[in-house]
Amino acid sequence: MSFDLVFFGGTGDLTWRKLMPALFQAFRHGKLPPGGRILSVARDEQSDEKYRSWLKDRFQDVVDAKRPSDEEFERFAQLVHYRRMDLSQPEDYLKLKKWLEERGADTAVLYLATSPHLFPMICEQLGASGLNGPHIRVVLEKPLGHDLQSAQEINRVVRSVFSETQAFRIDHYLGKPSVQNLMALRFGNALFEPLWRRESIANIQITLAEDLGVGTRGDFYDRTGALRDMIQNHALQLLTMVAMEPPSRNDADAIRDEKLKVLRSLKPFTEESVARDVIRGQYRKGTAGGKAVPGYLEEAKVPADSKTETFVTLRTEVENWRWAGVPFYLRTGKRLAARDAQIVVNFRPTPHSIFPGVNQPNKLVIKLQPEDGLELHLLAAKGSGQQEALSPVFLDLDFEKAFAENRVGAYERLLLDAIAGRLNLFVRSDEQEQAWRWVEPVLDAWERDNAASGGPRPYAAGTWGPAAASALVARDSFAWAEEQ
To answer: What predicted TM-score, i.e. pTM, was given to this entire model?
Structure first.
């Protein structure tokens, strides 16, 4: 299958840090379909050769695993092309169309790696120039909008130009191997499904923690915040994968129908429940990696009086028969104690223990980063005396070791799926809008609180956030995984 893959924003950070390295790895692994071309478009005036050289310099810092040799990069670079393009000029879209039609590839994937506020204009220009035929797909990078209204407007324009099957709304967490193995764990095995319900599970914790600060992205982050940047998309998508009912088949719409049901079943927020069940924080100076680091308000391009949250934790419930009464805790933040993304499923304790000492409940840990795997925590007898005492042990499945030869990264997987037209791991517009609908009461409550001189709670860099985050979980007589 021949394909053309076009990156709008071809000189931007996302393209050279994530997308091009992912394509290179697909090329290195022999997974990139033959007969493909990769085109970057941006406002700069440069040749293919100059762009390839520019890209090669950046690959030295961002390509995972072993660095490409000169010969290996040159073979990949022959697929890469560059064109100058002003995204506001209709004639430039017609030139792009001519370039694509010269060869007439089976599939053209147009990846919008630009600021989301440009999405409507780009899609309208694509439609006006005829770049929306059935063989064309458009990939939309998050964040898709700033609130429900802006998200709906983006989706309205996208739907006016492309069909839903042509629109690939990307959330790279869905491409992580551990998330795919969560689907396999639940729906490919009989072991866990009978236990995957309120009768056996006490609570579920989803943590997306970063040890870095905002770096050079202070202006972007201050307009966004942790709730929009991580909870509305990544964390909620992970929650739907954990809580969804078994789909009738391994089909994009069947899967996304079940995810949408979960989003619609989330307990809605009120002003009272926001105050009770949502904690926001903002990091202050502290220590990270053994070094002193500045607070958020001292970061470049951050206003000195900013009330943007860098940390959020919240408690919610899925109000249906399977999950009624089971708390779901979502947590994300910058400058936390560790870089750690994981889902922890805490099972209920045995109703009566016949063993002395510890009666620690079982738990399943789905590790997303920096490690990638599964841990099943159990209790086992030590075998050291007549009165058998139990000790915690765990079964550890490291996906990197188990499937080393076939491993692909999240963006690599999603780019290959976009080329192949597989929508299973992409977000449908109604899912995305429902997620915004659910978080909007929180955003509204914070806006009112900010106007009343409120704001996020401070926490020291290098910790796990405000103390209130632990109190939120302790209120239900539970604790975060690192505190157990």
So the answer is: 0.94
